[in-house]
Amino acid sequence: MIVRNEVWGLPVAVEMTLLAIASFAVVWAYVLWRRGDVKYATVGGLLGVILPAAALGILASELLKPPTAGMLVLPLFNPKANLSSWMVWGATGISLLILWSLLFTLPLIKPLDRIAVWGRSKAVMNVLGLLMAAFGIYTALYTGLVLAYERGIPFWHSAAVPLLALFMGLAAGSGLYGLLGKVETGRWIAVGGGLTALTYILHLHLSLQGPAAAAFSAQGVMSDPAALGGVALAALAAVVAAFGKKPGVVAAGVLAIVAVFLIRASLLLWGAWDFP
Amino acid sequence: MKPVFVIDVNKCVGCRACVAACIVEHGQVFTAAKPAGMGKPQTVKLRTWVEWREQQDPPARRFISSLCYHCEDTPCQRVCPTGATYKTPEGVVLVDKDLCIGCGYCIIACPYGSRYRPEPHKWKEAEETPLVKDAEAGAAYGGVLFKPPVPNKWAFRLDAVDKCTFCYHRYKGGGKLWSPACVEVCPTGSRLFGDLDDPTDPVAELVRRGVAKLARPDLKTGGRVYYVGL
């Protein structure tokens, strides 16, 4: 008996899309700071605080015990945490991403730089920026690992899913800067969007040949206009961004973010169990 | 003691007395009823179920029982972020309802569909079903369809993930085997409960002889629920 997933639905798709945007926005924030573009680095750094915090908020609102949501902040340091759960490592990574982003961004904001004195040291800012970027990439990967690790839902239990999550992070994070008019992100939107579309198509192809529930999910995705639209938009974003002109990069940024949301939603909503 | 559950599919007549017994024992509330003093039905999912499966050629109907398999290699326990899911020394997988935050990761990880969480957004839908409205009329006659649960710390709660416990609250200790509520009421003896450590146990003997088998050995989770005739 094949049953579609209704446990993790659209709110989780929104949460994971926010994490995807933040994941590589912080990488760009660090890169731009190194290039001396403080204004745009500040935007990325702030997004590294706000979007993951919003994602944790959405996750908390989905819990049956919302008052216990505090457990999702640095759960690794909670003595009751189960260290074999990916959720513990993921929520810890997201919490630390918020922390590093905050520490990196505060010295970049004019009135606050007097308090955030660590910003005067370039070495400290480099370490914070590197940590922020590393935790951003880890967060992108986590949104795939949390799905792929267990065998319950065969459509998710695939090495392609963490890779897909990583490429979606690259597309969405670069897409956000593309949306803000940063032309140099164009080629990375193209790489991220293209690899996202290719990886998802490959994943669907492999799923069709896999267990019955995985094949059911893949067939469902392939008959779902929203899901197919996601793949098409990701590919279109790659093509439009590759030209490198500002209007194209802006449009590609929007397309990439919408594509990531649609692909993520289809991945979650078409997940299915094969119950005995 | 190693409790083991055997379901003889050939003997099941699909009466779902087991489902009703489970509901009463643990305070789950079916869509047909709602608890006294509360305006909403609590859940539309259950700890155990008997599915009626139609077969075309030759035409036949089979009744397949399902419940938590109490796996040896336990995916739900592995993914639980708060350590709410745990295993007793007897190998029964339980949920500490105080520790469970209801994230749903264990439901995603379980390949057998044995876990569920009360979904508040489904209450409205359930309230509109004719059966619930009938239950209200039934209550006016003074008839109580479902009693409050037998008090125990694994009973159904709105704020935690729920699953079969093999009626562990009936275990009195000392390695003495107990009888789950569903086994007690099964009119045909389709549901059986035994002790794998007891060499004279006839239920365990079905497992040892290979007459009773796991539903999905390919998943390599092991488990304490075996089927005859699946």
General description of the model:
The complex is a heterodimer of chains A (276) and B (230). With 276 residues, chain A is mainly alpha-helical. Chain A has one domain: Formate dehydrogenase/DMSO reductase fold (Up-down Bundle), CATH 1.20.1630.10. Chain A is 70% helix and 2% strand. Chain A has helices at 10-34, 38-61, 86-105, 122-148, 160-179, 186-208, 212-222, 225-242, 246-269; strands at residues 2-4, 272-274. A two-stranded antiparallel sheet of chain A has the order 1-2. Chain A is globular, with a radius of gyration of 19 Å. The model of chain A has no long low-confidence stretch (mean pLDDT 93). By secondary structure, chain B is an alpha+beta fold. Chain B has a single domain (3-228), classed as Alpha-Beta Plaits (2-Layer Sandwich). Chain B has 7 helices and 7 strands, in the order E-H-E-E-H-E-E-H-H-H-H-E-H-E. Chain B has helices at residues 17-26, 75-79, 105-109, 121-127, 130-140, 181-185, 202-208; strands spanning 3-8, 49-55, 60-66, 85-87, 93-95, 191-195, 225-228. The longest helix of chain B has 11 residues, at 130-140. Chain B is globular. The two termini of chain B are 26 Å apart. The relative contact order of chain B is 0.27. Classes of the chains: A mainly alpha (276), B alpha+beta (230).
Number of domains of chain B: 1
- Any idea of the CATH topology of chain A? Formate dehydrogenase/DMSO reductase fold
Q: Write the H/E string of chain B, N to C.
A: EHEEHEEHHHHEHE
Average pLDDT of chain A, rounded to a whole number, is 93
Structural class label of chain A: mainly alpha
Largest β-sheet summary of chain B = 3 strands, mixed
Computed over alpha carbons, the radius of gyration of chain B is: 18 Å
Strand order in the sheet with the most strands of chain A: 1-2
In CATH, the architecture of chain A is: Up-down Bundle
User: Major beta sheet of chain A, specifics?
Assistant: 2 strands, antiparallel
- The end-to-end distance of chain B, rounded to whole angstroms, is 26 Å
CATH architecture of chain B: 2-Layer Sandwich
Tell me the number of helical segments of chain B per DSSP (H or I, 4 or more residues long): 7
The shape of chain B is globular
User: Can you write the helix and strand succession of chain A as a string?
Assistant: EHHHHHHHHHE
Distance between the termini of chain A: 6 Å
CATH level-four homologous superfamily name of chain A: Formate dehydrogenase/DMSO reductase domain
